[in-house]
Amino acid sequence: MEALQRFDGRKVECPELITAARVFISRAPAGALLHLITCAPTSVANIRHYCDSMGHALEAQEQAGAEYHFIVRRSQVAE
Question: For the segment 42-69, what is each residue's pLDDT rounded down to a tens digit?
Fold first, then answer.
């Protein structure tokens, strides 16, 4: 199983959440699998849009209670 790098954004609200996630993703190597955790309902649309616009693959997303979990594969292209 591939190791996941984890970003805990549960205490961060949008739009700061997307900025913090962007920095986290940009520091990961190309092709890395990342686990983002948030509590902001707006993160569902925002992270999907961010991944689409930057070429990252949103491989999975799930809601568990008040938390939102996203599995993102960083694109091969540098931001």
Answer: 999 999 999 999 999 999 999 999 999 9
Alpha carbon distance 63, 69 (integer Å): 6
Which DSSP helix (H) or strand (E) runs through 24? helix 16-27
φ/ψ of residue 38, rounded to 5: -140, 170
How far is residue 44's CA from residue 2's CA, in Å, rounded to a whole number? 24
Which segments of 1-79 are extended strands (E)?
Answer: 5-9, 33-38, 57-64, 67-73
Model pLDDT for residues 9-18, shown as the tens digit of each residue: 999 887 898 8
Matching residue, tokens 């990252």: 56
- 8 A C-beta contact, residue 73 and residue 35: no
Q: Closest Cα to residue 67, out of 38, 35, 28, 24?
A: 38
